[in-house]
Automatic annotation (TrEMBL):
Recorded GO MF terms: ATP binding; ATP-dependent NAD(P)H-hydrate dehydratase activity
Mitochondrion among keywords: yes
Chain ranges passing through the membrane: none
Record-listed E.C. numbers: 4.2.1.93
A biological-process GO annotation: nicotinamide nucleotide metabolic process
Family: Belongs to the NnrD/CARKD family.
Role this protein plays: Catalyzes the dehydration of the S-form of NAD(P)HX at the expense of ATP, which is converted to ADP. Together with NAD(P)HX epimerase, which catalyzes the epimerization of the S- and R-forms, the enzyme allows the repair of both epimers of NAD(P)HX, a damaged form of NAD(P)H that is a result of enzymatic or heat-dependent hydration.
Record protein name field: ATP-dependent (S)-NAD(P)H-hydrate dehydratase
Organism of derivation: Cnephaeus nilssonii
């Protein structure tokens, strides 16, 4: 089934942003020195996934040193070597009017200087009501300063197993009850003021603080480095898409999370699960990639995003 015109147009017009990191010498021994060069794959995966999902442009804001590396992976990405510059916040802020969603965290690292810049960029994005997807080291920042995202319902957090524990314990000041994943995700979302939380794992658990849904469709047979990054880039587009669809197309619901599920119904494509995890899942399901099997990597999945999307939405 084809996307309704308005929704399809929103995807076509969406732009996603990925932030990376840098090492700044004058802040003393950095916590995670060199992460910006070690993890150049992560922002690439997120940014290319946004393009494959339908964004017309995908910008990557990264450190000066990381920029040529990331650009060399793909001429399709627009790469800004500004994140470690003294006026990084201003350098990114001037692009915000052109951007529809921000993906923060893949490959960012945890150095104070970088996190400080990202904090400024997040605040500027919130002031413009830009939707943000926060993943990986962006979640490290939120664990240190949960107020940064408190009550911002245009945010989606996508923690993996460890990131969830870290974030949850920082916010709730209680050990996570691992026997009750649904309850744990619900409580974290509520404590953050109904920010959408997508806890990744063999099954993805999603909550907006009111409802909890679980995506347990058969998908990847394992974790492979980078598939979480794909998810965050993809989500950047979908969040914009859901918000653009608006309450008139989402039965009056305001939350991104609910909006997505209403969009699912519009597409008549799914009976359960979440679009953002279904697509990567579908991408690695037979018969799409039977030849890869256990050797499936994130790069193999990228090639399958388009065909998976078509399969999901064909009439
Ligand atoms: N090719 C690349 O450049 C990649 C870079 N990455 C970046 O690497 C940095 C660190 O990310 P990490 O994900 O290592 O974060 P963390 O340093 O918080 O480590 C998470 C840990 O949790 C473990 N874990 C995850 N799911 C688990 C489960 N279900 N059960 C038990 N253990 C589980 C992982 O193996 C990992 O050791 C981030 O900047 C991230 O974006 C990753 O995104 C992977 C790909
Ligand atoms: N044990 C598993 N078996 C099958 N699929 C999994 C498993 N764990 C995660 N996944 C799939 O991988 C997606 C990303 O989750 P994962 O835990 O790998 O995130 P991540 O650690 O952030 O990834 P990345 O390596 O990109 O940082 C999940 O949404 C889910 O679809
Ligand atoms: Mg990750």
């Amino acid at each position: 089934m084809a996307p309704p015109a308005g929704v399809g147009a929103a995807v076509a017009g969406a732009a996603a942003v990925t932030l990376l990191s840098a090492a700044l010498a004058f802040y003393g021994p950095p916590l995670d020195a060199g992460a910006h060069l070690r993890y150049t794959g992560a922002p690439y995966f997120a940014a290319i996934s946004a393009l494959k999902a339908g964004a017309d442009l995908s910008h990557v804001f990264c450190t000066r040193e990381a920029a040529p590396v990331i650009k060399s992976y793909s001429p399709e990405l627009i790469v800004h070597p500004v994140l470690d510059s003294p006026d990084a916040v201003h350098e990114v802020e001037k692009w915000l009017p052109r951007l529809h969603a921000l993906v923060v965290g893949p490959g960012l690292g945890r150095e104070d200087a970088l996190l400080k810049n990202v904090k400024g960029i997040l605040e500027a994005s919130k002031a413009r009501a830009i939707p943000v997807v926060i993943d990986a080291d962006g979640l490290w920042l939120i664990a240190q300063q949960p107020t940064l995202i408190q009550g911002y319902q245009k945010a989606v957090l996508t923690p993996n197993h460890m990131e969830f524990i870290r974030l949850s314990e920082a916010v709730l000041r209680d050990p996570v009850d691992s026997s009750d994943r649904r309850g744990a995700v619900l409580r974290l979302s509520q404590a953050l003021g109904n920010v959408t939380v997508v806890q990744k794992g063999e099954q993805d658990v999603i909550s907006d603080g009111e409802q909890v849904l679980e995506c347990n469709l058969q998908g990847s047979n394992r974790r492979c480095g980078g598939q979480g990054d794909l998810l965050s880039g993809f989500l950047g587009v979908l969040v914009q898409w859901a918000l653009h669809a608006g309450p008139e197309k989402t039965n009056g619901y305001g939350h991104i999370f609910i909006s997505h599920f209403e969009i699912f119904e519009l597409f008549s494509a799914l009976s359960c699960g979440c679009l953002w995890c279904v697509l990567p899942h579908k991408a690695v399901q037979p018969p799409s990639l039977p030849e890869y099997g256990r050797s499936t990597t994130t790069s193999d999945m990228i090639a399958e995003i388009g065909p998976a999307f078509s399969r999901l939405f064909e009439t």
